[in-house]
Write a structure and sequence with these properties.
- The protein is globular and about 55 Å long.
- The longest helix is centred in the C-terminal third of the chain and has 25 residues.
- The protein has 164 residues and is mostly helical.
- A hairpin with a 2-residue loop joins β2 and β3.
- α5 crosses α6 and α7 packs across α8.
- It starts with a helix and ends in a 10-residue tail after the last helix.
- It has a single domain, classed as Arc Repressor Mutant, subunit A.
- The chain has a three-stranded antiparallel sheet.
């Protein structure tokens, strides 16, 4: 009987499914399952999830302006500004004036930042390989492809691509 009530609630457009069964809840649970084992590795080198994303983007894309960095790292611009202050102070990134536009800065990963990413990536790669082994490499690739398709179908939204 409980199932029938739940099915009626979900079919009724005025009600939402329980949060853990919602799209947002399921995606967040998956993100937490993925990041849970990786966070201690990041903490070991003094990084937050968001700082890790910023450093990864700089490794992937090379020097970029702060707006591009925020979009690529899926973060709000003010969050990136705060993160950059800390990463510059720690010598993990450098910031210099854009020669083409003196009002803008370009951010680049430093040698120390690159070493930190490379060392941490060796550890996280082991965990990521375990995920692929447990879930299946082809299923994982298909899931990632479907999630990309979902983002494209819904639209990324110019005002927000990240989280706080």
């Amino acid at each position: 009987m409980g199932r029938c009530i739940l099915a009626v609630m979900i079919d009724d457009k005025r009600h939402l499914p329980p949060y853990r069964q919602s799209l947002a809840g399921t995606l967040l649970a998956a993100r937490e399952a993925v990041m849970g084992p990786i966070r201690p590795m990041l903490r070991e080198v003094g990084l937050t999830d968001q700082q890790w994303r910023v450093l990864r983007v700089l490794v992937d894309q090379g020097p970029v302006d702060a707006s591009t960095l925020a979009r690529a790292a899926l973060l709000y611009a003010p969050t990136v500004t705060r993160i950059l202050r800390d990463l510059v102070a720690r010598g993990l990134v450098t910031r210099f004036t854009n020669p083409a536009d003196g009002r803008r800065s370009i951010i680049k990963i430093s040698r120390q930042g690159r070493v930190t990413v490379d060392r941490t990536a060796m550890q996280t790669r082991v965990v990521l390989d375990q995920y692929a082994e447990r879930f299946g490499p082809s299923r994982l690739a298909a899931l990632q492809a479907e999630l990309v398709a979902l983002v494209e179908a819904i639209g990324e939204g110019e005002e927000l691509l990240g989280e706080e």
